[in-house]
Amino acid sequence: MLKAVILIGGPQKGTRFRPLSFEVPKPLFPVAGVPMIQHHIEACTKVPSMKEIVLVGFYQPNEALSRFLVSAQQEFKIPIRYLQEYAALGTGGGIYHFRDQILSGSPEAFFVLNADVCSEFPLPEMLAFQQQRGDPHSFVMLGTTANRKQSLNYGCIVANMETCEVLHYVEKPSTFVSEIINCGIYLFTPAIFQHIGEVFQRTQQELLLGACLGSAIYASRLYLSQYSQCHPERLAPNSPEGPTIRGNVYLHPTASIDRSAVLGPNVSIGKGVMVGAGVRVRESIILHGASLQDHTCVLNSIVGWDSTIGRWARVEGTPSDPNPNDPYAKIDSETLFRDGRLTPSITILGCNVTIPAEVVILNSIVLPHKELSRSFKNQIIL
């Protein structure tokens, strides 16, 4: 018997995601057409002997989260429940606080996944690796590689390359330690709670830290590329009656798309979106109810719910990863500001934002319910 724990965190302030998290909890933000944590849940349900999935976080219970849990249980035919922390306890603290619920039913092992991780989720392979090791009390941590600069923003792993044994681990080191970084996906046995308990009770700090939220557009690209194998029906085909599709594109069936529009690669169009004539969208997420009027151009951006972009307007951000053609390119974890200026990154429009005709919005963050009257560059519009 196996279980899975997905750590969904809680409300955050001072992040690029803030204009969008006003309207929806971050774990429910749609990536490649479905809520972010649905990718995690679907991966967990594909592991044999998986009996329950537990979400742990400090969001207040709300209608959107409750509705998602009911829908996910019906779709995946597995018990899914939410356990609310009294405060942000961190990875180790969160699972230690709810250890009795996690261990109920006596699972042999359990996965722990950070909700803001985008991955192919090789969970069966992690389970097989642990079983091959022959040590019932061994723990498995998923790692990947990064360059020397990027590695300083993550937990770094020094490992024996022959046995894959972790020899040393440093969280966000001040100097270079290793190019192997922690992905925030783990496989534990119940014995982990003895180790966490000793540290948690002694320092009241977390034992393990997960990875930061990467670019939603980057995550969307990975999941859209996976759809060609696991959900080809979710990818829009090219047809004489429809718009021009380049690469992987998700279109909600209720979206209205003019046949002269050009979409892709890496585009996700939500429910009820209207896309006018001559529109170009690339490397972007358009959330439900948004309207892109004729001849608009949207590149490397997230357009919030019910927002409107006027005719001939251009909304553009700066790619947050080094190579948009490489689905495994690593993201540089940049701070929101650098030298007192907003760090160039993707452009984000909050919900109900109105962009007038013939303006340019570049590398900016627009909070919800704003009606702009001119162009902006490298700004946060409050």
Automatic annotation (TrEMBL):
InterPro entries: GMPPB_C, Hexapep_transf_CS, Mannose-1P_guanyltransferase, NTP_transferase_dom, Nucleotide-diphossugar_trans. PROSITE patterns: HEXAPEP_TRANSFERASES. Coiled coil: none annotated. It comes from the Eukaryota. GO terms for molecular function: transferase activity. It holds the Pfam family GMPPB_C. SUPFAM superfamilies: Nucleotide-diphospho-sugar transferases. Residues 3-202 form the Nucleotidyl transferase domain. Residues 245-381 form the Mannose-1-phosphate guanyltransferase C-terminal domain. Belongs to the transferase hexapeptide repeat family. This is GDP-mannose pyrophosphorylase A. It comes from Gopherus evgoodei.
